[in-house]
């Protein structure tokens, strides 16, 4: 893991956006893994600005989202397809036919999961996968107890996740308790993973992910196994790390090395 600790949420979003922008500049046909939730929104706003400025293009890119609520159609305001259209796809030069979100309205969700895996494989795999982290350590909708080799599947949401997401639903509105999500094994196959976390409410999960043991109780701890995982967090999210100064020192040395290599 590369641990990057920045001052605030704005800096975290900018750092993450620069990784995705660099990927598109290097490989315009990139396959991007995307996420929903409050943390990625600022990153998407940065990418929209870069696209409008002509610095990057999504015209040849393909995207796969991590997850979707089971039982919601793509035009439902609380669906993740709707979220992605509103927060990114409708504002950049991407071909929406090349944007994939697990089908929450699938007639046969089990078959749809297999088909989603097949689409990712046919596209050549994900080049860069964006992740957030839940307070209970979930990534995507891989809740605690998820298998570390799991594939795209139907997953029951924990009460903690349902409660966290309840703020997005009206009091009398149907809130799904099931989802379709990429599995942890699917996520780990991405060539690069970028996880963003901000705020003190994520500090326990960040600590468990980075310094805790590899365990199904904290699904994000599986990123300890990834060869190119970048964890970008603000000081509040990093506040419970026991070796905070060590991570800051290592990242400073890494930046010096990258600057030196750029001169060669």
Automatic annotation (TrEMBL):
**How is activity regulated here?**
Allosterically activated by N-acetylglucosamine 6-phosphate (GlcNAc6P).
Reaction catalyzed: alpha-D-glucosamine 6-phosphate + H2O = beta-D-fructose 6-phosphate + NH4(+)
Q: Which residues form the active site?
A: 67, 136, 138, 143
Q: Which domain of life is it from?
A: Bacteria
Record-linked InterPro entries = Glc/Gal-6P_isomerase (IPR006148), Glucosamine6P_isomerase (IPR004547), Glucosamine6P_isomerase_CS (IPR018321), NagB/RpiA_transferase-like (IPR037171)
One function term, GO molecular function aspect = glucosamine-6-phosphate deaminase activity
The protein's site described by Part of the allosteric site is found at: 146, 153, 155-156
Q: Name the enzyme's class.
A: hydrolase
State the UniProt keywords alphabetically.
Answer: Allosteric enzyme, Carbohydrate metabolism, Hydrolase
User: Which residue numbers delimit the Glucosamine/galactosamine-6-phosphate isomerase domain?
Assistant: 9-229
Q: What is its EC number?
A: 3.5.99.6
Q: In which pathway does it act?
A: Amino-sugar metabolism; N-acetylneuraminate degradation; D-fructose 6-phosphate from N-acetylneuraminate: step 5/5
Q: Which PANTHER family does the entry link to?
A: GLUCOSAMINE-6-PHOSPHATE ISOMERASE (PTHR11280)
Its biological function?
Catalyzes the reversible isomerization-deamination of glucosamine 6-phosphate (GlcN6P) to form fructose 6-phosphate (Fru6P) and ammonium ion.
Family note: Belongs to the glucosamine/galactosamine-6-phosphate isomerase family. NagB subfamily.
- Assembly, per entry: Homohexamer.
Q: What is this protein called?
A: Glucosamine-6-phosphate deaminase
Source species of the chain: Pseudoalteromonas prydzensis
Q: Which gene encodes it?
A: nagB
